[in-house]
UniProtKB/TrEMBL annotation:
Annotated TM spans: none
Protein name per Swiss-Prot or TrEMBL: Anti-sigma factor antagonist
Limits of the STAS domain: 1-97
Superkingdom field: Bacteria
Pfam family, one: STAS
UniProt cross-references to PROSITE patterns, sorted A to Z: STAS
UniProt-listed InterPro entries: STAS_dom (IPR002645), STAS_dom_sf (IPR036513)
Length: 97
């Protein structure tokens, strides 16, 4: 995963597959980036496959972000990824309002 930071925005770029091997690294990166007032942008432009089990990482991140006063936004999802996030109840939590 590649990360970059500008002001109060942090970008996490996910790889082409987010599966049970990658999920712990994503979870660790997300936890490190969650800070009060920060907006974390999950760039999923290269992500072609999202294992449904990886949804737990997103849920943990959303719960923690609300406690920290941070925000998580997912961008550039393909249809398969969007469908997994939608079916797990995550999609509307990861979209900009």
């Amino acid at each position: 995963m590649n990360t970059s930071s500008v002001a109060s925005h942090v970008v996490i770029r996910l790889p082409s597959r987010v599966d049970s091997f990658i999920s712990p690294f994503f979870e660790q990166d997300l936890k490190q980036k969650l800070q009060p007032g920060v907006t974390i942008i999950i760039d999923m432009a290269k992500t072609k496959f999202l294992e449904p089990a990886a949804a737990s990482v997103f849920w943990a991140g959303i719960i923690q972000s609300r406690k920290e006063g941070a925000k998580i936004i997912a961008r550039d999802m393909n249809e398969q990824v969007k469908l997994v996030l939608e079916r797990s109840g995550l999609l509307h939590h990861l979209q900009e309002l």
